Amino acid sequence: MRWKAILRDECGSELVEFAISAMVLFTILFGIIELSLSMYAYHFVTSAAQAGARYAIVRGADWSLACSTSAPPKFTVSYSCNAAASDVSNYVQSLATAGIDPSKITVTTTWPGTTPDCTKNCTACTTANSQGCIVKVNVSYAFGLVYKIIPGAAMLFSGTSQKVIQQ
Question: Sheet holding 154-164: strands in order across?
């Protein structure tokens, strides 16, 4: 008889209901935050690839300014040299804003217009990085989840931009 009275007692039921609904609410809330941060990282990667390609197309082999002789610190961008792969990489890494870790950004810059398998648009290309050639910039970013459900798990975002060198 005593057990039946205990089971019928509703004392503390509100606390249990609140705990369950709060757990569901916070799971949804943190899921929305995580999704928003991942979309932010994806947007950064795609716009960084476009910015890196633009940096490369205006600093081709015909770029007329002389190079600086001082040794730049890490992620310092030289605006006065022809764009080499390391220059494009440093430029893209310098674009990292709050929430983006520059050490997790991988930039691959290629000039496919000088390879034997180039497209018909690059027949005039004689040297890498010359006017009329194509530059292709691929930016990858390993986005680590803020709320570590699976330790060491990361989402890899990648963006590619391909443009014709103007100068």
Answer: 105-110, 134-144, 154-164
